[in-house]
Structures are given as C-alpha cells and as structure tokens.
Write a structure and sequence with these properties.
With 248 residues, the chain is an alpha/beta fold. Helix content is 43%, strand content 16%. Helix 3 packs parallel to helix 4 and helix 5 packs parallel to helix 7. The chain is globular.
Length: 248
C-alpha cells in the first residue's frame, strides 16, 4: 500500500481548473485538492484526480444566519464533489470568531460552540451519506475541534459512516515540536480508522517522515496533500514527499 502525494490548488497562481491541472502535472503531483470553484470545472478523466474538494465554511459562527449559509456552502461542496467524482470534502469545524473560520476565540471551548458545530455537521451529513461523499473534519488549535481528542469525541457523537478526519501534522504538533512523536502517535491511536485525508506543511519544522510512516501503517491509500508551499518550490517538495513515501 502507498500514499498518494497530492497538492492543494491554492499553491498555484492558476485560477482555472485547466491551469491548476497543468501546474499539478508539471509539479509531479498524483492528486489535487481544490476549492469548489476550481473543482467544478475539473476535466473528466483528468490524469491527476481530485482527491478532495475544500468545503471552507464556519460551522460555529456566532450568528445563526451565517451558520446556515455555511451549511449551504458545505452542501454545495458535496454536490460538486459528486459531480467530479471526488470522494472527500474537507471541513473546518469553525470558530466563534466572526471574520475568520480558522482564528481562535475564547468561546470556542463553550458547550454552545460545540453544539453549533455538531448541529451544522448534522445538517449536512444526511446529504453526504446519500451521495457517498465523506466529510473530513480537521482538528486544529484555533477551532472548536481543537485536537485529536475532540475529533474522536465528534466522531463518536455524530456516529456517521460518512464523517472522517483530515490530519495535518503541523497543526497537531503546533508549538510542541519536542513532543511531536508522542502527539502524532496519540492522534493515530485515537483516529486511525477514520483518517481519510492528510495535509503536509512546515516540512522543515515537523517530522513528516514519521507522519508518512503512520499513514502507510493504515494499510489504505490516504492522500497526502502538500499545503501552503510556494509554487516555485512545489516540484522539489512533491519529489521529497515521494521519497518519504518510498522509504528513502
């Protein structure tokens, strides 16, 4: 079993699906994650498949109307994923910050914020289940699902076969680089069966060799999406990830 080395479309300056596809091929990527806008025009039978569609929304927004719009955005992303044959829609759990869906807020740890996150996801999961698309929630320090423990809680509470997790080694580790081995091992111990997508960034800071090995031990292909890399470095970084997957 291997790991598909993919790249996020926003790493490229191209603003069309054809341009992103050409750039991904040039960089040596075996898959792409893209926004719904880019994904919507992805060519049928493209040499590089869409491994995920980004469902960027704030599911814990403090305003109920904005949460409803976020739910609608996520539902639309599911339909786009279906139309292009992408199996996963990535999901940010959200935050009480009204302006940035990834920015931390002191109320994110409240019972109300958690309940709103769960309710927002619950409003989309029946569609995902009926359409055969998995929602991949990313644990991140700044949002309501802030770590692997909270991701496990979310999975258990919502109990949907179409709810999974997206793991980003850098987000899991945060500033605790000296503890990264234990942090990554703990995350996989809790979430291994539910990991459907992974992100790679900050390769110089976080031990992605260990992260890739944990992905390989899952025994199924979980795409690893290179994230937040400069376009000029995309090809060399993709090559480095291919080397890690190959065990070199």
């Amino acid at each position: 079993m291997t790991v598909t080395v993919a790249i996020h479309a926003r790493s490229f300056s191209a603003e069309t699906s054809e341009g992103v596809l050409a750039a991904a091929l040039k960089a040596g990527a075996a898959g792409v994650q893209a926004s719904a806008t880019i994904a919507r025009g992805w060519p049928s039978g493209a040499a590089v498949p869409l491994v995920a569609v980004s469902g960027t929304a704030n599911l814990a927004h403090p305003d109920a109307g904005e949460r409803a719009r976020s739910v609608a955005t996520l539902r639309a992303a599911v339909e786009v994923a279906v139309s292009v044959g992408s199996p996963v829609v990535s999901v940010c759990a959200g935050t009480r910050d009204a302006l940035d869906p990834w920015r931390s807020h002191p109320d994110n740890r409240s019972a109300e914020a958690w309940a709103d996150t769960c309710a927002s996801l619950a409003a989309v999961l029946p569609l995902a289940e009926s359409r055969g698309v998995t929602l991949a929630v990313e644990p991140e320090a700044g949002v309501t699902v802030c770590d692997a423990v909270q991701a496990r809680r979310l999975l258990d509470e919502l109990a949907s076969p179409r709810l999974g997790v997206l793991l980003d080694a850098a987000n899991l580790v945060g500033g605790r680089v000296s503890e990264q081995t234990a942090i990554l091992a703990h995350a996989f111990a809790l979430l291994a069966d539910d990991v459907v997508l992974a992100h790679a960034k900050d390769l110089e800071r976080v031990d992605h060799r260990a992260f890739v090995q944990l992905l390989l031990l899952l025994g199924r292909d979980v795409p690893l999406v290179l994230h937040d890399v400069e376009e000029s470095r995309a090809a060399t970084t993709i090559a480095a990830l291919h080397e890690l997957v190959a065990g070199r």
